[in-house]
Amino acid sequence: MEKIAVNYEKMYYGFPVILTSFYDEDGVAHVTTSSSSYSLKDMIVLGFNSKGFAAQHLKAGTDFVVNVPDRSQQESISYCGSRSGAEGSKFAAAGLTPEASEHVHAPAVRECPISIACRVVEVVESEQFPGVTNIVGKIVSRSVAKDYLNAEGRLQIDKLSPVIYAGDGVNKGFRDLQES
């Protein structure tokens, strides 16, 4: 396979889309679309633009919930990813419902089949990567919609219909993994 060197500002090679939700200092529920995340055991890491509304609040140590949407929520994903939380809460306009988390002071998104409640434990910013903030969180609890679980309470992988984000910084977008 012949390869050509490219000079892209970014390279998203297909990351699962999440909706990160949290309360601001006034108790208003906020939600934002992101795709830079990974988790191992009870640790989760989220990457944000340092100047963004969500990064500013999470850097302050705000609890948060990582919500995993499915393909039926692509309009909500697009809406939450195209507007700043500084303009106000995006929940209602995106057709989403905040619901109190049982384990952290952050709202979950009722419509998402998976919600992972987290606490900020570390904020990582480096001179090597200016403008990037990594939020390291401890996973406090995980919740999965009943119809996504089998009789033994294990995740039914075939029920998942995740959305991925891919692109080169100019050409970019969301893609349903079940699209043909």
Describe it for me?
The chain is mainly β and 180 residues long. Helix content is 9%, strand content 41%. The protein has 2 helices and 12 strands, in the order βββββαβαββββββ. The strands form 3 sheets. It has a 7-stranded antiparallel beta sheet with strand order 3-2-6-9-10-5-4. A 3-stranded antiparallel beta sheet has the order 1-11-12, with no helix packed on it. The protein has a two-stranded antiparallel ribbon with strand order 7-8. The longest helix is centred in the middle third of the chain and has 9 residues, at 74-82. The chain starts with 11 loop residues before the first strand and ends with a strand. The relative contact order is 0.23.
Can I get a quick summary?
The chain has 180 residues and is mainly beta. It has two helices and twelve strands, in the order E-E-E-E-E-H-E-H-E-E-E-E-E-E. The mean pLDDT is 91.
User: Which class best fits the helix and strand makeup?
Assistant: mainly beta
Q: What can be said about the biggest beta sheet?
A: 7 strands, antiparallel
The percent range for helix content is: under 10%
* Biggest sheet, spatial arrangement of strands: 3-2-6-9-10-5-4
What fraction of residues sit in β-strands? 35-45%
User: Could you list the spans in which at least 5 consecutive residues all have pLDDT below 50?
Assistant: none
- Straight-line N-to-C gap: 24 Å
With helices defined by DSSP (H or I, 4 residues minimum), what is the helix count?
2
